[in-house]
Design brief:
Length: about 100
């Protein structure tokens, strides 16, 4: 169990370092929300699949396409600017049930 936890910790550490390195030199891709949503729909066929409230009244949204499998996570700031946070491929919608009491995650 300790070895699995250690390996998992190393994996998360590597993921954090890789993400930090990938975004260190990148300029944020931001535009008015309407422009971003239209571009995601026309270029990738993506529609909104999820939404959540983030810090400082920012709105996080997940856009995805069932046809192409592409996905994009955006954050819209209080000033109306929407920034692309992450994107990728092979999106799947899951309908998992939470574990029962005492079963763990």
């Amino acid at each position: 169990m300790k070895q699995q936890l250690f390996a998992l910790s190393l994996g998360f550490g590597g993921l954090i370092l890789a993400t930090h390195h990938a975004f260190a030199d990148a300029r944020p891709n931001c535009a008015e929300r309407e422009t971003v949503v239209a571009e995601l729909a026309s270029r990738y066929g993506e529609t909104r699949h999820g939404i959540g409230l983030a810090a400082n009244n920012a709105v996080m949204e997940v856009f995805a396409s069932a046809e192409t499998g592409t996905w994009t996570i955006t954050v819209t700031l209080a000033n109306g600017m929407t920034c692309l946070v992450a994107s990728g491929q092979n999106y799947e919608t899951l309908a998992e049930q939470p574990p029962g009491p005492g079963k763990g995650a």
